[in-house]
Amino acid sequence: MAETLIKISGVRKEYKVEAGPNVVALNGVDLEIKRNEFICVVGPSGCGKTTLLNIIAGLEPFDSGSVTMHGEEIIGPGPDRGVIFQQYALFPWMTVRRNIEYGLKFQEKMFTDEEKSELVSHYIKMVNLEGFENSYPKALSGGMKQRVAIARGYALNPEVLLMDEPFGALDAQTRAQLQEDLLHTWESEKKTAFFITHDVDEAVLLATRVVIMSARPGQIKEIVDINLPYPRTQATKMDPEFIRLKNYIWDAVYKMYLEIPK
Ligand code: ADP
Ligand code: MG
């Protein structure tokens, strides 16, 4: 069994709401994230996915339970956890190359200019942005901006990448392309990933395990192993086992959605 990287035990998070009852966003959440796995989290809107990611990132305090990385309590953000948001958060005044290079600053290692240049070129190639090194974000499409954000996430060289619906704002074709790029990158670097999506197809395509969350309060309902072989491509979606897993998870999520009072 692979080494446990992050351990979440009995986490409870309640948001104080001024006008109205408090919201119990998470209650009794237990999860172990193993090194090199690709976890996708799905669940109805409002079930606490973002809250859980922010807690792992050290950006959100919680009421009880514990979250550890390598056995040590997570008490705030750190360069061992890289976060990629849906809205790319690039620096508009920096070129693609500079935006990615910025990620290198957070590594402990000091790089020479030559090493920096080589590393940045490696990440640019990885996300298929060759030829756009000197472009500014405003000149790029949404998909390209998200590629820069992903390359910068990798340049941080964190132990785990935390991604909150990173492809949520992209059109279907761009999304499919970025899924393949991300798969390709994960297959070669095996960087531990914690990836939130509301798209069940996307979850099954990428993940080694899919975590299904339920709402009110947010809890882990079920964890499904995805035993489809890598490398995976869009063609994997035709595999009968893919279809079986997708239907199974979709059904579980949809049933919960129907149970939520609207
Ligand atoms: P998800 O990402 O799964 O959609 P969130 O983690 O964003 O869910 O939210 C979980 C629940 O907590 C929701 O009911 C949401 O309305 C509530 N919530 C999130 N952030 C806050 C906040 N800052 N104050 C009050 N309630 C919040
Ligand atoms: Mg969310």
Could you characterize what this model shows?
- The protein is an alpha/beta fold and about 260 residues long.
- Helix content is about 35%, strand content about 25%.
- The protein has seven helices and ten strands.
- The chain has helices at about 50-55, 95-105, 115-125, 140-155, 170-190, 200-205, 240-260, and strands at about 5-15, 25-35, 40, 65-70, 70-75, 80-85, 160-165, 190-195, 210-215, 220-225.
- The chain has a six-stranded mixed beta sheet with strand order 6-7-8-3-9-10, with helices on both faces. A four-stranded antiparallel beta sheet has the order 2-1-4-5, covered by helices on one side.
- A hairpin with a 2-residue loop joins strand 4 and strand 5 (about 70-75).
- Helix 2 (about 95-105) runs parallel beside helix 4 (about 140-155), helix 3 crosses helix 4 and helix 6 (about 200-205) packs across helix 7 (about 240-260).
- The radius of gyration is 19 Å and the shape is globular.
- The mean pLDDT is about 95.
- The structure holds adenosine-5'-diphosphate (ADP) and magnesium ion (MG).
- Adenosine-5'-diphosphate binds near residues 15, 49, 50 and 51.
- It holds the Pfam family ABC_tran.
